[in-house]
Amino acid sequence: MFSNTDLYSFVSPSAYDTAWLAMIPDPHQPDRPMFAECLDWMLNSQRERRVLGEFDGYGVPTIDCLPATLACMVALKRWNVGPKEWHLFMRMQRSFLKKSTIPVLGGLPLFSPAMVELAGSVGLEIILSDGLKATVAKIFNQRLQILNTEELVDKYHYPPLISYLEALPSWYDISREDIVKHLSDDGSIFQSPSATAHAFMVSGRKSVWPTFNLFFKDALLEVDFVFIAVPPIYPMDEELVKLSMVNQLQRLGLAQQFVEEIDEILSVVHRNLLEKSISLRHLHDNLVVFPNFRRMIEQELSLPWTARLDHLDHRKWIEVNEIDTLWMGKASFYGLSCLHEDDLIRLATENYKFRQSIYNKELVEVTRWSKDLGLSNMGFGREKTTYCYFASAAASSSQLPHHSEVRLVVAKVAILITVADDFFDMQGSLDELESLTEAVRRWDGRGLTGHSEVIFKALDNLVNDIAGKYIHQQGGECDIAKILHDMWYEAFSSWLTEAKWSKSGYIPSTEEYLRTGMISIAAHTVALQGSCFLNPSLPIYKLTPTQYEPVTKLLMVITRLLNDIQSYQKEQVDGKTNLVLLHKKENPETDIEDSISYVRGILDEKKKELLEHVLSDGLSDLPKSCKHIHLSCMKVFQMFFNSGNEFDSNTSEMLEDVKQAIYIPLEFQTSKPSIKPLPLPSERKKGFPKVNAILGPTFKNQTIRSFTAHSIPLPMPRVAYGKMFMPLKFKTCFI
């Protein structure tokens, strides 16, 4: 996939542009097409697909099929080719016009009227159902508005009007000098094969033919695809194609298998972007959508990106089973395809199942650890062993697929935090809580009994295990036990402070509450200890509270605010406070929704800052993997507290996510042949056997069934397209 030097093998052909090239007569033999095998491609594509265009996410042809199909019909009739195919086109279009949908496509108001008029000029007239008449009338009115408001070429619109040259009506004021003036160095009209083909046919100036030949002969033949079909634009945006490949690999969960290739592509694109200095002239024309567009939109909008876990996202992307990215071109949607679709889907499926097998084993280990230490049967609070491990595994699979130790440490730390926090919140007496906190300060559990003893022994076991494995990993005398003792004491002290507030009824100030609350949420306790086992690992001094990085402090604030927005009702009942309740108390004239909005506003700003620190270079000297574990931790909290407190509940949706992530196998399915890429050079045929035979004398004596002509009931200018074509001896009606 990455070694393929033929860029256009990743691009689906454009039926619309191919049809326009098929219309060009050979300058030396005007009764024959210049690119005869383009006709072959249209005939074969029609037989295979029936509709020359794309479909929406529910398998219904979109109305952008109309200009492409009409252009192909005009080209076939131009050369008296394929009478059987015309009848197939007619039957197909009869059905298509009844159920077609309307996509958001900038050039549609220009193309559809032009192709309707062009079809009429060669005797192909259209009958519209009552339901579609209003739609087509609207499209014609949109064209008029565009032509009255846009310049031929201006700095506000890309692609400019002249790139739609073949779709401009004859009454639009454009001269041959305008056409020649805007020829690119490569001989094209703004890299549009269809516009360039039209310009070639209407220029009438042999002096510019060598320029056109540069485009048709040299440029297109150089990539060896013009005799089959053409892409929607030439030359293509190479970086767009490569970025689409990278996007697919990341979405499928395969980025780690192509690290070097992806890094090289991103480096080149970034370097080129810097050299170009906000040059965004291709931005509008390079919008990317997907075959199951509506389904993907619904999925994307159902949950914010920051609340989606990578592992489950990969599964959903694989299950959609649409590798092709769609590029919003001039006349239609075009596929940026991968020739190894089935191989990638199979690899992604096997990779997902392989991860599931690892996660299953690790969950068994974590569950046994929690049970052996007595944490899973404390008799109070939340038993969240599975939730903690699920979050650890599913959130980090993109960045940390091979870091088993990281997942295990993160899950165990999260489990212990959950149990200890519940003990301070709902079970322990103030004496017990003070004794346990003092034991953590001394790191000596003598004298503890009951739940306090269980918690401290589990904590001591975990810290000794982490410190021992860290020494083994780093070598030498890199003992982090004392630093971990201090980190855990910081957490226990914050829980004790909040317990005293709750039991005494004390109301802290906002500043005092946040200073304690961003520690008691303990998100940094999870992220920093997990970061110790990355490669490169977190520098030891970054584990000290006074040395926390800005990204760590942002994580602490964000996770506290996420919790507070969704938990204020429960905490109000329990006699506790949080930032939402504090704001309401300090601003009694406001209602609770105003307080929620206030906190959410702070949260949104802090999330932006965290993303900037994680995704930008130069704002932190933390290794990239350490920054990503901070992002993963934030996404876990966003997932649990996105629209409610899911961590404290056992909703069917959450349990189903756990099953999908760890237990339910993902089965391989062959990808659907929605878009066919342009064939590789080795697969392309040479010569013109089929079209030459059709253009022979035998065909000229055949007759074609005629139909009653009907005119489209819309006011429209009559366009003199007919002068471009040879006289026709018959009339066909398109129904």
Automatic annotation (TrEMBL):
<dbReference type="Pfam" id="PF03936">
    <property type="entry name" value="Terpene_synth_C"/>
</dbReference>
<protein>
    <submittedName>
        <fullName>(E,E)-geranyllinalool synthase</fullName>
    </submittedName>
</protein>
<feature type="domain" description="Terpene synthase metal-binding">
    <location>
        <begin position="371"/>
        <end position="609"/>
    </location>
</feature>
<dbReference type="GO" id="GO:0010333">
    <property type="term" value="F:terpene synthase activity"/>
</dbReference>
<dbReference type="InterPro" id="IPR050148">
    <property type="entry name" value="Terpene_synthase-like"/>
</dbReference>
<feature type="domain" description="Terpene synthase N-terminal">
    <location>
        <begin position="206"/>
        <end position="276"/>
    </location>
</feature>
<dbReference type="InterPro" id="IPR005630">
    <property type="entry name" value="Terpene_synthase_metal-bd"/>
</dbReference>
<dbReference type="GO" id="GO:0016114">
    <property type="term" value="P:terpenoid biosynthetic process"/>
</dbReference>
<dbReference type="InterPro" id="IPR008930">
    <property type="entry name" value="Terpenoid_cyclase/PrenylTrfase"/>
</dbReference>
<keyword id="KW-0456">Lyase</keyword>
<dbReference type="Pfam" id="PF01397">
    <property type="entry name" value="Terpene_synth"/>
</dbReference>
<dbReference type="GO" id="GO:0000287">
    <property type="term" value="F:magnesium ion binding"/>
</dbReference>
<keyword id="KW-0460">Magnesium</keyword>
<dbReference type="InterPro" id="IPR008949">
    <property type="entry name" value="Isoprenoid_synthase_dom_sf"/>
</dbReference>
<dbReference type="InterPro" id="IPR036965">
    <property type="entry name" value="Terpene_synth_N_sf"/>
</dbReference>
<dbReference type="GO" id="GO:0016101">
    <property type="term" value="P:diterpenoid metabolic process"/>
</dbReference>
<dbReference type="InterPro" id="IPR001906">
    <property type="entry name" value="Terpene_synth_N"/>
</dbReference>
<keyword id="KW-0479">Metal-binding</keyword>
